[in-house]
Amino acid sequence: MKSIRLLLRQVIYINKAFWRNPASAFFTFAFPIMFLIIFNALLGNKTTHIGDKISHYSTYYVSAMATFGLISASYTNIAINISYARDTGILKRINGTPLPKVSYIGARVLHALLVAILLVAITALFGRFFYQAELPSGLTLLRFIIALVVGAVSFSALGFAITAKVKDADASPAVVNASIFPLLFLSGIFIPLGNNAPSWIHWIARIFPVWHFALSMQAGFIGTAYNWTDVIVVAAWGLFGLLISIRYFRWEPAR
Amino acid sequence: MNSDLAVEVAGLKKSYGSFEAVKGIDFHISTGEIFSLLGPNGAGKTTTIEILEGFREKNSGQVTVLGLNPEKDRIKLKEHIGIVPQSGSLDRYLTVIETVTMYRGYYQNPMAAEEVIELVGLEVKKNERVLRLSGGQQRRLEVAIALVGNPDLLFLDEPTTGFDPAARRETWQVIKGLSEMGKTVLLTTHYMDEAEFLADRIAVISGGLIVAEGTPHNLGGRDKLLPRISLTYPRDILPPEELKSERQDNGDTVFQAEDLTSAIHIITEHAKANNLSLESLQIVRPSLEDVYLGLIGYNEDRDQVEEMSNAKPGRRTRRGSGRR
Asked: B40 in contact with A at a CB cutoff of 8 Å?
């Protein structure tokens, strides 16, 4: 009970620092919305086939940028901020206080989830008012929210896991972006994967969690089929991230 | 456990792979004492302290901190110790009061946030963000968050590195104040004047062993070392022959005399006879730094000391330390 109270309290401080840090507020928060506007200005009027639906690119990008936003709020945000906090000795210092580790890590994940929800909500409102996006409701909304929570928690776990591969704070933006951007492209986030895309790209998309998560978001915004398999694949990757973190996560700066 | 002792260490050993960082050391710190651990980088200081703090596990030996075993009772111990690590461990985007309040919430019997901020003299900077504080102010904030849990024992790791002289003095006053509050302090530093001003007792660690222990006054037999008299003689005048002397590279002549009074007498008589001014006359007691450098073998084997410091496994890079 006490760990939960400390967790919620920690979220408040993480949140304050988050919004005051221009880098995290801009790259995590403003980027996905900026991309949404740019992509739609360039391509919004064209249509594309998404599953069995014909969709405007604009609607597609609402879903894709919600996906991108959630990933940057969880994976990228956690990986970069944790690497920095570790490198500067903040994590070690926290580890020297009675604050339970689970409260600190839980607070980071919960904060990432809240930022992700806010980002997805803003993207959805943009979509609703400017880009003919459907908004999920009823049972679809419930399934959408489950996918969103599973996604935010799983990508957060992967964010913690990747810090094991980050040497120091200087290396973190490079490692983090190099690990996620190619995958975002290969999963059709910025350019939809048409049927003509080479099969190796489809295979990569199927193996990694980004494409599966994107499909769950599309089910909400575009009305394509929702598959629990997609949610399970994302959750499995989250579990993998959790196991790696338990084994390799460091509280102390590299030496 | 003896309740007068805050820390008891016996036969402590720790290796990293084949590197023996700590080779079997013994020391104790009494409750309410400021105890300083001195030694070059790589001597085993940080390893020893991190074992006491519970960050590392020892290979062998006995370690008791506030009556607890830092490995088994780590969670309980965290409640009663405060750690000031080497600089940089603050969130730059929180304010002073937010930082202190955040850490305060982690403890069961904390001090009031305002009280701690006042104690380190940051009242006027209370609502300032960390990134807008000077290096000295950030360091004092680090002391504040180590204190807010109302710990019995504080670990201060090089608390004034990189400070200007005024900021050092301010921080020293804060540390002296802690001891007056009855708190035990374990201090590491590279500044001998800092150890001399603050420490009740000093242990010098070198190559993983404690090579000397004592008060700043008598460490390494400092109180028994002979004072040195130095004086500059013109080229054409030889120093008095009755005294053993040595001419140094800078032209000064140095005497080491067991009987200071008669040595001074001989020197002044000789000066009077030769019509010499005594403006350059100095009587120097061996400084703590002289004693320290002798203890760590600086003169004989300088390269070895540097090599050891490079081989140190816990070597840290200092970044984001916020001296902006």
From this structure: no
